[in-house]
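Worked Example 4.2. Consider the chain below.
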Amino acid sequence: MQAQELLRRIKANNAPVVVDTRSEMEFRKGHIPGAINAPVRKILLHRAQLPQDKSREMVVTCMHGQRATAAKFLLGLYGYRNTELLEGFLEDWKAAGLPVETS
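Applying the procedure from the previous section yields the following C-alpha cells:
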C-alpha cells in the first residue's frame, strides 16, 4: 500500500491494522499513528497481539523492509491472507514528513 493511501485511510477512520515489526524501543521513538508493535520474534513465537480475525486487512512495515518482509511471510504461514507491505516502509514515510506518534 502506498503511504499517501494509508494516511488517507487513517484520517478517514478506515485504516487497515498497521503492524510495525521493529523493536519495542524503535517503536516508542516514533511510529505510524495507530500502529501496533509486533516484532518479528514475537510473531514467530505467537506472542504478538495480532487481530483474531485472520481475514482482517493489515499493512506490515519496518524501517527498511527486511523485518516487514519476514513478518509478512510468517503471517501468511499463520493463516493471515489479507496482508501487504507499506511501499517504501517507514524510511519513506518519515522522509515524506508524514505523521508519527511516540509512546
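The chain has a mean pLDDT of 97. The first strand starts at residue 17 and ends at 20. Compare this with Example 4.1 before moving on.
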